[in-house]
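Practice problem: predict the structure.
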Amino acid sequence: MLLFGALVPHAAIIIPEIGGKETDKVARTVAAMNRLAGIFKDLSPETVVVFSPHGPVLGRELPIRGDENLEGDLRQFGSRLSWVFRNDRELVDLITAEVEAEGLSATVFDRDTYPSFGLNRGLDHGVVVPLSFLAETPFRLVATGICYYYPPEKQYALGVAIGRAIRKTSRRVAVVASGDLSHCLIPGAPVPYNPRGKEFDLLLVKLIRENRPEEIVRLDPELVEEAAECGYRSVLMLLGVFEGLEMQTEVLSYEGPFGVGYAVATFIPGAENPARRLLPELQKKRAAEVAARRQQESAPVRLARRTVENHLRKKEAEEEAGLPEELPQRAGVFVSIKKHGELRGCIGTVYPTRSSLAREIMANALAAAFQDPRFPPVSEDELEDLVYSVDILKPPEPVRGIGDLDPNKYGVIVRRGHRSGLLLPNLEGIETPEEQVAIARRKAGIGPDEPVELERFEVVRYH
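Answer:
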């Protein structure tokens, strides 16, 4: 039985024993947590499920702590406070089964598997800090980490599966989404200041207050990324738990005096309501967006995307036909892949290395997806989130100096002996030739004062 849910922060400074006088600066958060503790005491849940972004983190599986007893403390913050909770293994097993029934994955950690993932068995502060307020009455605990690479719809689907598991247990269950909001609210915050952090926080708090879960799931991914938050995935899972139920929400507090957003909110379940089943509609809208984007693809981009998808799905490679006749027979090509506005891979060739342009695109698409050393290889569950672009290069030409460069029109190649660095043109955030050359130098490992040879090139970019 689902009793209620809550969104809570996990900054240790909200605990007076740890924060001291600094805790006074988050008095509204502390008051809200104490109010939440009163709700806990009145409802007396038999099991508490906590989603923590600082627990085990896996790329494409939900990590769940499986030890019989779950222990945690706050020694890292100079406190002697510690807790031991009995794990609700029955609910853990139900959650694992329902997650797999949803077509997703879960991994249960125990003393034998923690070391292989380089993880600590002790509960993280994302679990322990909130429970330091809420653990006045005894309860069993289920503690999960997060699945980092799932898109919002799948994060929500994890919550849907967990909600089904909770409905199958005879115990009264509370669900806690542990997570701080933006970490870049003010200059001097843990992450460099970005005004979009405040935009994200205020919007999320507003949507929670107004009980608009679908809009929370469909928040702009670039806004979420720029906010530098650590609670959004926990919130999505919490909302999924309430799939098919009426829900009342209340924001008890929000503040961010240290540059990190702290929100406390409650989620109270009501009667079953089929109209509150959001997952099918979310999945339908997602599929429509992906289809519309792909319908607008250029031929080079379609070839790059299908090459990556066919490789992952073990299908035969594309035929070389299909590129417009006006394209060059052979050319250097760069394939760039982005996910939620952030670079996911980029590999290319300055001069043609394959027998045809199509083969050049195909080879560099595979390299960008699976061989860019800056990123893990692309996985099949990411494919719908990936956006491709293909740059077809014109032959480079030498230039006399930086005055012959224009970062909006020309890419640049910086050479020093066997070292060389390349930067494509018209990249976001690069406005001057000096910035362009400096970045290309760094990529090549060439010092800022070393003499270099410069070349420029033009590209035709396809989306």
